[in-house]
Amino acid sequence: MSAQPKSLLAQVWVAETVQLIEKNGPLDDAQALARAHRSALPMRAQLRERAWLLGERLGLVAQLERWRGAAWLLVLLAAAAVLALTNGLLFAVLADGRSINAASAFVSALGLHALTLLFWLGSLFLARGGGSQTKGMFSLGRFLATLVLRLPFWRGPQSAPMLRAGTHLVARERLAPWVFGLGSHLVWTLGFVFMLLGLLLGFAFREYRLTWETTILSPQWFAAFARATGALPALLGVPVPGLDAGTGQLAGAWPARDAAWWLLACVALYGLLPRALCALWCGWVVRRALRRINIDLSDPYYQLLLARLQALEPALVTDAEQPGAALVRAPSAARGVFTQARAVVGFELAAHLPWPPPGLGPDADYIVRIAGSMDEQAQVQERLAALRPGALLVVCDPAASPDRGTARFLRETALSAQRCALVLSAASGGDGDEMRTLAGVRRWREWMQGAGLADWGFFEQSANAAAWWQGQA
Amino acid sequence: MTQPIAIAVVGHTNAGKTSLLRTLTRQGSFGEVSDRPGTTRHVERIDLRIDGRAAVRFFDTPGLEDAVALQHHLRSLPGEFGNPVDRVRAFLAGPEAHAAYEQEAKVLRTMLEVDAAVYVIDCRQDVLPKYRSEIELLCACARPVMPVLNFIAASAERADAWRELLTGFNLHVWMQFDAVAPFVGAERQLFQDLCVLLRPRQAELQAVVAELERQGAARRAAAATLVARLLVHAAALRLPVPREALASPGGRERALEQFRDQLAGVTQKCVQAVLGVYGFRSGEADVALQPWTSGRWQVDLFHPQTLQDAGRKLGTGAVVGAAVGAVADVALAGLSLGAATALGAAVGGVASQGWSQVPRKLMHRLQGAEELSVEDTVLLALADSLVRLISALERRGHAATAQLHIPAAVAGPDTLQALVQALSAARGFASDGSAPPLAASPDARREALSGRVAALLLRSLSEA
């Protein structure tokens, strides 16, 4: 859709516009967000990409294209400005037939230029200090808005928010005086170039008389004026026109050739040169700003989007669960002859838990507590196999997480006992862990069902287990 | 392009591996977290991206459930092995790797593929032989292992026993990390500790640390901006109430309620946005973060008695007296009617913003309307609650499922006094109900004030 390459400026502009549009409610951006995320670009680029995709849908990009296509209007405008300027300047200098009033020509050629240049420098200073720059921007924004929204070439459905976003952007980057300056300096520079060409042409093929006249000044004043303004051109080898006039004289002529060169040099040095330098300066600043321009990540709007982008990061299963693999289990039903013995095994109990569990100690024929190492487990299995107890109680820690190791141990012990039960040994005084213990009991109960130990008895307290034991006896 | 740093997250079942990854990747929806043992049965991978490029690749593994028996099995493997890794490889090639120890085999297989492993320990548990076996198994894979002591806050005394055990296995670099409630900078600490273990990848890890730092700062700045805009909006908020309405029975209460609702609504939006900035989702049922959305607060917090109590507390100098949270503070709203507030607002407005608000105030006066506005104490309470919300969110892991409560402030926060003073300038702004209060304002003065307030908020956040 966008044959034109996406410049950074265009992307940021579109992003700014989308932000402006979303001020009044979010757009449906699920697809754009996902596509931006898949692009695997840097963060800011992803945000710009999302805005660009939304902008394509909303017609912002098309509007931008339309404006780009209508840029010739700007060129036309600038050309008209140059034409008018050159015409005005030349007219001011060469209006009086073959006679040129040198001092007045100097002032009319450079006066307006000096004033506007000073004004621009002033605005630069104000913008640096902050403050009025926003106000200036709003007037520029309004000017642009009225211009663009009226002209048929530039008008479009999305031009209003785009313009506002553009002015925001320029205001944020404090670019207004530079952008404006670039335009005006270029126009002035071209104006002076054409004016110099015109003057050269005139001076080359026509004869002009360069005069001076006054009512209140003395001729010496004009001589001094010529020396002062001609000092700089003199450094480049342009002769300073001399004036030989008596004190009483009120009018006269300059040496025409010298004066013509002096005028040309003054226009070039005081008019063309500063404007050209300023244009270069503005161009440099604007270029640098355009290269640096980007979206502001500390803006809450972009942070919200970033959080959503991050949440899109896909999780990839690299080693999948193989169904059925864990379900293959050894049979746990015990067969054979059993004694009336009672065994109590504490398995992987925490140190602070009471041992033996209250009510179970005295009656047991075999009571042991193991931490769970392989040797201990083997020892217990051996004893149980020899004892063949009628009742076996395995005591576990409710706070611990049941695991397959525990299940394996339980199943193996069940092979040597007639009836088995699991007891969760709660800490006696610790009421701080009560919630955890409760959750633990529920967890163990559910786990027993799932681990194929459903035929086991299950007791939350050792007292209940003792009753089970007694009832059995 | 270099390969991302691969890190396996391993540990006993239910030790909090997936929770840790949720917090590290800031993804509350990653994997499946539950109290049930063995929730994760597959190996799952997720990338931590830095500037769009996968910088760190985490592998979430199933829990080691029967390390004791597996270790025994490994020892009993026939044949001579030059080193433990060959033994592990032999096991992985054997039949039991797909039968009894399928889950453990996944862990060990992953271990052999990664650059380093993070071993998550639930240090509420006693040091048992099975954990010893786990560590031995992991060490047999010959990869750097970084133990992470999870749930350290719950049992500090057992942590010592764990450290002793780890030292015994030559694991001298460990770190504390509560996946649900990580301390500020815990992630950075983790990656820096990994630097010690992974010398060759040090530069990359440092880049990750720097980037995380930058992201954190940007998030904090964004949250502060949101809160600042809310505060400016609240300070500028005014509700003109005709005198007749005030005189009528219940009219005063109705006006107050309307005003409170207005402020509470905006505050809630701000809280949601701040949650969004920190990557916590509010719409999801399993991540219920706002006690305020339950509707319960409407009953008891806006109760006249609560208001009265708050009024008393505010009056007796305890600057902030709140019950539940940010909205509660608003709800308590020591809102005042009458000339004093209006006058104060007018003076504040005139002093800082010129005369723009005066004609409107005069007009209201002539029309016989009083203006409701938010008192300084409420602004202070609101700012304090939201600052604490931000710092609580910074300490909250993305694995947390419990509701986040922002309790009432105990002492008057001095650092925020300057903020309330700065906000007095906002009294003069137009009370624009239609403009979205949390978006950037087109008014440059308002935006500048928001920036100032945000800077103050950031200062008090960094002091806290």
Q: Which segments of chain B are poorly predicted (pLDDT under 50) over 5 or more consecutive residues?
A: 283-357
**What is the string of helix and strand elements of chain B?**
EHEEHHHEHEHEHHEHHHHHHHEHHH
Main sheet properties of chain B:
6 strands, mixed
C-alpha-based Rg of chain B, rounded: 28 Å
What would the principal axes of the Cα set say about the shape of chain B?
elongated
Secondary structure: number of strands of chain A? 9
Total of domains of chain A: 2
Report the span from N to C terminus of chain B. 41 Å
Supply the number of helical segments of chain A. Answer: 16
Sheet of most strands of chain A = 5 strands, parallel
Number of separate domains of chain B: 2
Number of strands of chain B: 8
Walk me through the topology:
The complex is a heterodimer of chains A (473) and B (464).
Chain A: H1 8-22, H2 30-38, H3 43-58, H4 60-69, H5 71-94, E1 99-101, H6 102-128, H7 133-150, H8 159-172, H9 176-205, E2 209-213, H10 219-235, E3 251-253, H11 256-292, H12 300-311, E4 316-319, E5 342-347, E6 366-370, H13 374-387, E7 391-396, H14 404-414, E8 419-424, H15 434-450, E9 457-459, H16 462-472
Parallel strand pairs in A: 1-2, 5-6, 5-7, 7-8, 8-9
Antiparallel strand pairs in A: 2-3
Chain B: E1 5-11, H1 17-25, E2 43-50, E3 53-60, H2 67-75, H3 84-93, H4 102-113, E4 116-122, H5 129-140, E5 145-150, H6 156-168, E6 175-176, H7 186-197, H8 202-236, E7 238-242, H9 243-247, H10 251-277, H11 296-300, H12 304-315, H13 326-332, H14 339-353, H15 358-367, E8 369-373, H16 376-394, H17 417-423, H18 444-463
Helix pairs in contact in B: 2-5, 3-4, 7-8, 8-10, 8-16, 8-18, 10-13, 13-16, 17-18
Describe this structure in words.
The complex is a heterodimer of chains A (473) and B (464). By secondary structure, chain A is an alpha/beta fold. Chain A contains 16 helices and nine strands. Chain A folds into two domains: 301 residues, no CATH class; 137 residues, 3-Layer(aba) Sandwich (Rossmann fold), CATH 3.40.50. In chain A, helix 14 links the parallel strand 7 and strand 8. In chain A, helix 1 packs across helix 3, helix 9 packs antiparallel against helix 11 and helix 10 packs across helix 11. About 2% of the residues of chain A have low confidence. By secondary structure, chain B is of the alpha/beta class. Chain B has 18 helices and eight strands. In chain B, the strands form two sheets. A six-stranded mixed β-sheet of chain B has the order 2-3-1-4-5-6, with helices on both faces. In chain B, helix 13 runs antiparallel to helix 16. About 16% of the residues of chain B have low confidence. At the A-B interface, helix 3, helix 12, strand 4, helix 13 and helix 14 of A face strand 2, strand 3, helix 2, helix 4 and helix 5 of B.
